[in-house]
Amino acid sequence: MPSTYQVVRQAIIEKHQVIADYDGYRREMCPHAIGRKKDREQALFYQFGGDSKSGLDPAPESPKNWRCIPIDGLSGVSTQPGTWHTAPSHSRRQTCFDEIDVEVFF
Questions:
Q1: Are 77 and 20 in contact, with CB atoms under 8 Å apart?
Q2: Measured between alpha carbons, how far is residue 105 from residues 15, 46, 86 in Å?
Q3: Structural domain range at position 38
Q4: What is the torsional sign of CA 50, 47, 77, 82?
Q5: Which whole-number Å values give the CA distances from 29 to 22, 25, 38, 47, in the listed order?
């Protein structure tokens, strides 16, 4: 069985959506990059559906919907093809990673 890291990594390569639980909320997200920060595996997602503690900005392509999430905090992870959601700025990735393993290509 593939690890959560491998599932998210493959979703980036295939530009598939990720559905997962994190921090007590079910989230629908498009993964944009995966890597490490201080030896912790993390991924940068654009959240387009579900819930979160901070809520979602309903504006299309809102930069407020970027999420840097530790891989070990995700559970119930699945992937599916679907509409790709993103925003123009990946500014959060600069603080999300020390090193990037895989990043989405447009």
A1: yes
A2: 9, 14, 12
A3: 4-103
A4: positive
A5: 11, 12, 24, 4
pTM: 0.93
Q: How far apart, in whole angstroms, are the C-alpha atoms of residue 30 and residue 26? A: 14
pLDDT in tens, 64-89: 999 999 999 999 999 999 999 999 87
- How many domains does the structure of the chain reveal? 1
The 8 Å CB, 24+ separation contacts for 37-40 are: 37/96, 37/97, 37/98, 38/98, 40/70, 40/72
Q: Classify the C-alpha dihedral 63-64-67-68 as positive or negative.
A: positive
